Amino acid sequence: MEQDRGFSPQNTRDKGTLGQRWQNARPTKMMVFWMCLACVLLTMVVGFRWGGWVRSSTAQKMAETAADDAVIKRLTPICLAKFNEDPGKIQKYNELKAASSWDRNTYIEKQGWATIYGETTPARGVAAECAIQLMKAPAPVAAVIAPAALP
């Protein structure tokens, strides 16, 4: 049976070197189709796994996160400035420091420091970042030194 298909041991010895067999190879249309499909799939796997490709929904989420982070980064100094303008900032700083880390955001929102001028509600995420920055900073002093007047 195998001899009818050309699988005799004598035929395998007569095939020649790998280079000669490569030159004599004539792939069928079906073989070319499957090779192309395998290349496409391999390209997709490599691209999505290691190439940094993402789907549009993932890109949308990444863009929204980046935009939110940029807004928070830009509005946090305003929150800190409003804290520094508060006349009772030393007492409020001590209350803030005594509060648990979970309650600090709501404390800052209640004080109005996270509410940007012209808005009625606190900006989302600003109170949390403001609390982090306030806890990193040294304790405020009673008198704020004004910057030297420019000549």
Spell out the key features of this protein.
transmembrane helix; transmembrane; 151 residues; rod-shaped; 7 helices; disordered C terminus; mainly alpha; single chain; membrane
What does this structure look like?
Keywords: Membrane, Transmembrane, Transmembrane helix. This protein has 151 residues and is mainly alpha-helical. It folds into 2 domains: 41 residues; 81 residues, no CATH class. 61% of the residues lie in helices and 0% in strands. It has 7 helices and no strands. Helix 4 crosses helix 7 and helix 6 crosses helix 7. The longest helix has 30 residues. The radius of gyration is 35 Å and the shape is rod-shaped. The C terminus is likely disordered.
What is the fold's blueprint, element by element?
Blueprint: H1 9-13, H2 18-24, H3 29-49, H4 56-85, H5 89-98, H6 104-111, H7 126-136
Keywords: Membrane, Transmembrane, Transmembrane helix
